[in-house]
Structures are given as C-alpha cells and as structure tokens.
C-alpha cells in the first residue's frame, strides 16, 4: 500500500478548513485542556513545552498538533506557544478522524514515522550505554529522541516535499 495518495488527498482538503492565526507569545494549546481539535501548521513557528521544559521547536508546515489527545481521548499533554505569527488549519478531531480515511491514514503515518524514528534512537542509546560512551554523547541521543517523539517530526509531506527528520 502506497501512502502518498492519501497524504495528497488530505493536504488538498486542508484548504477547506478554517485558519486561525496566533501571534508571538500566544498559547495555541494548553497542557491539561481538552479542545477536541486538530491543528495543522500552515505557516509560522511554535515551541512545545512539557512541564515548563521546551522539548521542541516546530516550523514544519503540515505538522499536526492535538492528535494524541484526540486519538486517546485525553487532555493535551503539552503547551504549544507561538514563537512568531503562526497560522493553523483547524479541524474538529472526531469528525475528521472518524469520517475521513485520508486524514486518519495521514495521522497514523505521521505517528508511525515518529515511533519508528524514536525506536531507532533508542537502539542507538542502548548501544552507547553498552559501549560506555560519555554522558554528553548519550544526552545528545536522548535529546534526539525527544525531538523525534514531538510534533517537530509531525508531517510526512507538505506541498509535495517529503519530510526527513535527519535532513
């Protein structure tokens, strides 16, 4: 099964969604809140904070926010704050995920890519620990894992360009 057609279909539907703009310093999503929405970054840059620790900065168009909250039916787990004026396509999560197979496949593919990349980083970390590498080297791998698990790697393709978290 080739995922590109579903990704292209999903992205073509983004234009029909309303767009919200957040100015620098504004909170886009708050940890602990339940919005029932998916936000897809159209343009801009945001910071993701978990327990007041920045875990990622995201500027990748097509990055999806709120997907774990929607899929697991739980509150948002992190704060997302605009670092500059940022625009998001806004969708009600339940109907989008429940009624649009292309959207569900896009989100599942994004999550699968994040999980696969994080698994590879975990293997790298275990090898580093077994080889007795320095704390500095292992901390770099841990930071890489944090980035891979965040929405910083939350898009597969936007405007026809494949996303490579290692590029």
Layout of helices and strands:
Elements: H1 4-14, E1 19-22, E2 27-29, E3 37-43, E4 46-50, E5 53-58, E6 64-65, H2 67-72, E7 79-82, E8 86-92, H3 93-99, H4 101-130, H5 135-149, E9 157-158, E10 161-162
Antiparallel strand pairs: 1-8, 2-7, 3-6, 3-8, 4-5, 4-7, 9-10
> Poorly predicted ranges (pLDDT <50, ≥5 residues)?
152-167
Percent helix: 40-55%
- Please give the domain count: 1
Question: How confident is the prediction overall: mean pLDDT?
Answer: 82
State the fourth-level CATH superfamily: Jelly Rolls
Question: For the report, how would you describe the main beta sheet?
Answer: 4 strands, antiparallel
What is the chain-wise order of helices and strands? HEEEEEEHEEHHHEE
Strands of the biggest beta sheet: in what spatial order?
A: 1-8-3-6
Return the CATH architecture: Sandwich
Question: What is the overall shape?
Answer: globular
Q: What is the CATH level 1 assignment? A: Mainly Beta
- Helix/strand/pairing category: alpha+beta
Query: What's the end-to-end separation, in Å?
Result: 25 Å
Radius of gyration: 16 Å
Give an overview in words.
The chain is an alpha+beta fold. It has five helices and ten strands. A four-stranded antiparallel sheet has the order 1-8-3-6. Strands 2-7-4-5 form a four-stranded antiparallel sheet. A hairpin with a 2-residue loop joins strand 4 and strand 5. The longest helix is centred in the last third of the chain and has 30 residues.
